[in-house]
Design a protein that fits this description.
Layout (H helix, E strand, L loop, with lengths): L4 E2 L5 H14 L10 H9 L6 E7 L8 E13 L4 E11 L8 H15 L5 E3 L6 H10 L14 H16 L2
Parallel strand pairs: 4-5
Antiparallel strand pairs: 1-2, 2-3, 3-4
């Protein structure tokens, strides 16, 4: 296992490949709309608001280190704590590299950044059917947010709410 490092622009293709692998694993193989250009812009553009770390290692039979996993994250803000936190959007390690400590190292690096910067929270969501991931997170001492349910506006509902707000603003 290697120490995670900050993603570089030349990592964009492999990060996007891993995002596609994650989508397949999460039973949403056609859901990824991201492109290399968008991902590059968001991670490395003029004002990045999304960040990534990667973990490298040598696959069985391989000779050169390759990216085996990634963590993609962004800042949050807690009104109660009065400080930022980190939201882990995606954590993914290739199946053939699981158990090698890459996921733990990536989460550890984000925990280190959280503490170093004086943030109070490192949070993420996990699908309720993903028992291996839940077991992994439990083994680290990550608690679940009992009593909270994640909600989302997207697609048609997002468009309806935005249209209603626009109509209100324009006096229609």
């Amino acid at each position: 296992m290697s120490t995670p490092r900050i993603a570089r622009p030349d990592d964009v293709p492999v990060i996007l490949e891993l995002i596609h692998e994650l989508a397949v694993y999460e039973r949403e193989p056609d859901a990824v709309k991201n492109t290399p250009e968008l991902l590059h812009s968001h991670l490395f553009g003029d004002n990045p608001r999304v960040f990534a770390h990667v973990s490298e290692g040598i696959l069985p039979g391989g000779e050169e280190p390759v990216v085996l996993g990634f963590a993609l994250w962004y800042l949050t803000y807690s009104t109660w704590e009065g400080t930022h936190g980190i939201h882990l959007e995606d954590l993914y390690v290739r199946p053939e590299a699981r158990g090698g400590g890459h996921g733990k190292a990536l989460l550890g690096e984000l925990a280190r950044i959280t503490v170093e910067r004086g943030y109070k929270r490192l949070e993420w969501s996990v699908l309720d059917w993903n028992a291996p991931a839940i077991g992994f997170y439990d083994s680290l001492g990550a608690g679940s947010m009992d009593g909270w349910t994640v909600r989302r506006l997207d697609s048609d509902a997002l468009a309806r709410v935005a249209a209603a707000a626009s109509a209100t603003r324009s006096g229609a």
